[in-house]
Design a protein that fits this description.
The complex is a heterodimer of chains A (113) and B (111). With 113 residues, chain A is mostly beta strands. Chain A has strands spanning 4-6, 10-13, 19-25, 31-38, 42-49, 56-57, 64-70, 73-78, 87-94, 103-104, 108-112. Chain A is 0% helix and 53% strand. In chain A, the strands form two sheets. In chain A, strands 2, 4, 5, 6, 9, 10 and 11 form a seven-stranded mixed β-sheet that branches. With 111 residues, chain B is mostly beta strands. Chain B has strands spanning 4-6, 11-14, 19-25, 30-38, 45-51, 54-58, 61-66, 71-76, 85-93, 100-101, 105-110. The N and C termini of chain B lie far apart (38 Å). Classes of the chains: A mainly beta (113), B mainly beta (111). Chains A and B meet through strand 5 and strand 10 of A and strand 5 of B.
């Protein structure tokens, strides 16, 4: 059973803080993704990675960066959190050859005050 | 214009009803069409996927793709309260690099 875990379920941070969201998958998947989910907007891709140390921008990368030093771990970094980054953040992973299925973590609800 | 459009609902039906959920899209390069189900306070999970056009059935669920109309559907027969969730459609081109998600339709099946 694939498991994708995220470091926190709920997080409250202040404007201007640097925020780290961690994601770990246990199935040796090549691809990893970070999305944010907002009402009425669905899931929007922030960044994805198809290999260690590789990353590609998604649709809304502004204000975010990522790090993938190990295959199983993909981190999302908010360099200076702002209130418009209050959202649900979802991490996902997929196997290269079965890429129609992404496995999602439970999400981190981030509130920036 | 969004790549994928989906009616957000909410959709409320009595138990046993047939449910129809739909998405439209604009990008003719999409080849894979997926339906994800998301329960409250959980991440989405894959329900069904279809490659190109046609129908696919899995138990009470049927996925349909009409590429000529750029329209996909998910039908749920004999709906159950346990089907209450948000249903997200997703699509990707052949190279898989990105999924394009609809905004999700919230379904409530009343006992």
């Amino acid at each position: 059973d694939v498991k994708v875990t995220q470091s926190s379920r709920y997080l409250v941070k202040r404007t201007g803080e640097k925020v780290f969201l961690e994601c770990v998958q246990d199935m040796d998947h090549e691809n990893m993704f970070w999305y944010r989910q907002d009402p009425g907007l669905g899931l929007r891709l922030i960044y994805f990675s198809y290999d260690v140390k590789m990353k590609e921008k998604g649709d809304i990368p502004e204000g975010y960066s990522v790090s993938r030093e190990k295959k199983e771990r993909f981190s999302l970094i908010l360099e200076s959190a702002s209130t418009n980054q209050t959202s649900m953040y979802l991490c996902a992973s997929s196997l290269e050859v079965v890429a129609y299925e992404q496995y999602f973590g439970p999400g981190t609800r981030l509130t920036v005050t | 214009q969004k790549e994928v459009e989906q009616d957000p609902g909410p959709l409320s039906v009595p138990e046993g009803a047939i449910v129809s959920l739909n998405c439209t899209y604009s990008n003719s390069a999409f080849q894979y069409f997926m339906w994800y189900r998301q329960y409250s306070r959980k991440g989405p999970e894959l329900l069904m996927y279809t490659y190109s056009s046609g129908n696919k059935e899995d138990g009470r669920f049927t996925a349909q793709v009409d590429k000529s109309s750029k329209y996909i559907s998910l039908f749920i027969r004999d709906s159950q309260p346990s089907d209450s969730a948000t249903y997200l459609c997703a699509m990707s081109p052949y190279n898989f690099n990105k999924f394009y998600f609809g905004s999700g339709t919230k379904l409530n099946v009343k006992p």
